[in-house]
Amino acid sequence: MMLLNTDDSILPFSVEGLDVRGRVVRLGPSIDTVLARHSYPPQVSKVLGEAVALTVLLGSSLKLEGRFQLQTRTDGPIDMLVVDFEAPDRVRAYARFDEEKLEAANGAPTGELLGSGHLAMTIDSGPEMSRYQGVVPLAGDGLEAAAHEYFAQSEQIPTRVRLAVAEAIGSGEHTWRAGGILVQFLPEAGQSVRDLPGGDVPEDMEAPADDEDAWMEAKSLVETVEDHELIDPTIASEQLLYRLFHERGVRVFQQQDVRHACRCSDERILGMLKSFSDEEKRDMIDDDGQINVTCEFCSTKYTVSPGDIGIEPN
């Protein structure tokens, strides 16, 4: 069996014997780039890393066009997260936090760092399709629990998610890695394209007696996944899936790549500034006589002359 590179990848899979499908996401340089652009404190980096892994898990189900956005608004030390996934492979993200609250909450788990509020997931499948948004409460239980609530409430699909983020230290360098696995109970799920070896299980092995047994088995197996298995670059996604599901026979689809990419540009910044009133534009002019804009997602700085947006110099 030829193993695929695990970095910055999405590997869809199915387990027909349990009527489940899912995806494994492994993020290396892409998540490290997202976090390095902002120099976040470690607690913020970890929570934002989880949000990015979750967004990629969910957003990668979109077709060739479309955007998936995850956004939180809460009263915790990390009061806002925004993650954009643009199909088929582009992701960007940022976080907002209160330094004093964060210091006071040192060592707190993700749920406490986010606090109470809500999480919104927005699907935009293109200009000819209606936008869809699902909103679920956040009450200190973290992003995994919020994802389960989202699918139970909005999609009514039995779903289990595991997320992991860690900072790797080696050769004097600190780099971030993130990963996740999502499994969903979808009876009569469609075709697959490549088998992973199924051990010594007979080909005509029957599925569990009923749907509840099948889903309980699949969920229990995913709950055995340890954090290091989702972020260790030496453990291929296929190896993890084989460990979990080899007795049932797991099949994988074509691997998808994922990369950090921001949508900001000179044209977009100009378009955004032109949408403001003349009074608002004048209020934006800095002491140097220019309008200076920093992209929240990638920290790129833009300098715009007032004349470029229709404001004459004083």
Helix content: 25-40%
How far is the N terminus from the C terminus? 70 Å
What's the CATH class label of the largest domain?
Alpha Beta
Q: What is the β-strand count?
A: 15
- Quick one: CATH superfamily of the largest domain? Hsp33 domain
What is the CATH architecture annotation of the largest domain?
Answer: 3-Layer(bab) Sandwich
Fold topology:
Layout: E1 9-15, E2 20-27, H1 29-36, H2 42-59, E3 67-74, E4 78-86, E5 90-97, H3 99-104, H4 110-114, E6 116-124, E7 132-139, H5 142-155, E8 159-170, E9 173-185, E10 194-195, H6 211-222, H7 227-231, H8 237-245, E11 251-252, E12 256-257, E13 259-260, H9 266-274, H10 278-283, E14 291-294, E15 301-304
Parallel strand pairs: 5-13
Antiparallel strand pairs: 1-2, 1-11, 1-12, 2-9, 3-4, 3-6, 4-5, 6-7, 8-9, 10-11, 14-15
Model description:
This protein is an alpha+beta fold. The protein has 2 domains: 9-260, Hsp33 domain (3-Layer(bab) Sandwich); 266-309, Alpha-Beta Complex (CBS domain Like), CATH 3.90.1280. Helix content is 29%, strand content 31%. It contains 10 helices and 15 strands. It has helices spanning 29-36, 42-59, 99-104, 110-114, 142-155, 211-222, 227-231, 237-245, 266-274, 278-283; strands spanning 9-15, 20-27, 67-74, 78-86, 90-97, 116-124, 132-139, 159-170, 173-185, 194-195, 251-252, 256-257, 259-260, 291-294, 301-304. The strands form 3 sheets. Strands 1, 2, 8, 9, 10, 11 and 12 form a 7-stranded antiparallel sheet that branches. It is globular, with a radius of gyration of 22 Å.
Question: What's this, in brief?
Answer:
This protein is of the alpha+beta class and 314 residues long. It has helices spanning 29-36, 42-59, 99-104, 110-114, 142-155, 211-222, 227-231, 237-245, 266-274, 278-283; strands spanning 9-15, 20-27, 67-74, 78-86, 90-97, 116-124, 132-139, 159-170, 173-185, 194-195, 251-252, 256-257, 259-260, 291-294, 301-304.
